[in-house]
Amino acid sequence: MKRWYVVYTKASAELSALGHLNRQGFEAYLPRCHKILRHARRQSTVLRPLFPRYLFVGLDLGVDRWRSVNGTVGVSRLVCHGERPTPLPRGLVEALRDSEVEEGAVPLSQLALFDPGDRLRVLDGAFKGQAGIYHGMTEAERVVLLFDMIGRQVEVALPIHAVEAV
Questions:
Q1: Nearest CA-CA partner of 109 in 120, 119, 101, 117
Q2: Taking 90 as the threshold, does the pLDDT of residue 109 lie above it?
Q3: What does the alpha-carbon distance between residue 53 and residue 73 come to, in Å, rounded to a whole number?
Q4: How crowded is residue 117: how many other Cβ atoms within 10 Å of its Cβ?
Q5: Distance CA 36, CA 158 (A)
Q6: What is the pLDDT of residues 54-73, one digit of tens each?
Q7: In which band, very low, low, confident or very high, does the pLDDT at 162 lie, cut at 50, 70 and 90?
Q8: 3-108, CATH topology level
């Protein structure tokens, strides 16, 4: 029976490993998300791996020659527990695939990164170093934080990469 397994790739070789696995006849999946790059006052959006250095491969361990995955260009190794690869929970890869939007990107707002009420610290911008309460996500995939200011709570929307859990 086919299950999904985790492949650990070489640094920045996710796309190469994906292509080589597919050419060998394996069903491989690389979830990606949009990432905003900033350089010299310019901003661009690119597709990057959701889990850097990891991708997923569908295998039936009783039928497929799964050990050949370890010798694939771009692959470091299959993630194993002992001698055998460790399967992912059923439905995880399917849920990621179902949540994809344009260009095959998984929207970060679909992932439960934080729970409402969590305290987050701002890493960049005008509120750098301040802690706020996580309120939710906007449709533009920005984190909404509540700050206590001037005797009341104020909502502020920030890029997801500009916050971390306290």
A1: 101
A2: no
A3: 13
A4: 9
A5: 13
A6: 999 999 999 999 999 999 99
A7: confident
A8: Alpha-Beta Plaits (3.30.70)
Structure tokens at 76: 């470091």
- What's the CA gap between 129 and 122, in Å, rounded? 5
Contact criterion met (CB below 8 Å) for 58 and 3: yes
Rg of the chain, C-alpha, whole Å = 19
Q: Nearest 5°: phi and psi at 29?
A: -140, 130
Taking only the tens place, the pLDDT of each residue in 27-39 is: 999 999 887 777 8
Per-residue pLDDT reduced to its tens digit, 95-105: 889 989 878 88
The one-letter code for the residue type at 61 is L
Cα distance between the two ends of the chain: 42
| Length of the chain as a residue count | 166
Tell me, yes or no, if the pTM score tops 0.85: no
Q: What residues does 37 pair with on adjacent strands?
A: 44
Q: Would you report the helix, strand and coil content of the chain in percent, each value rounded to 5?
A: 20, 45, 35
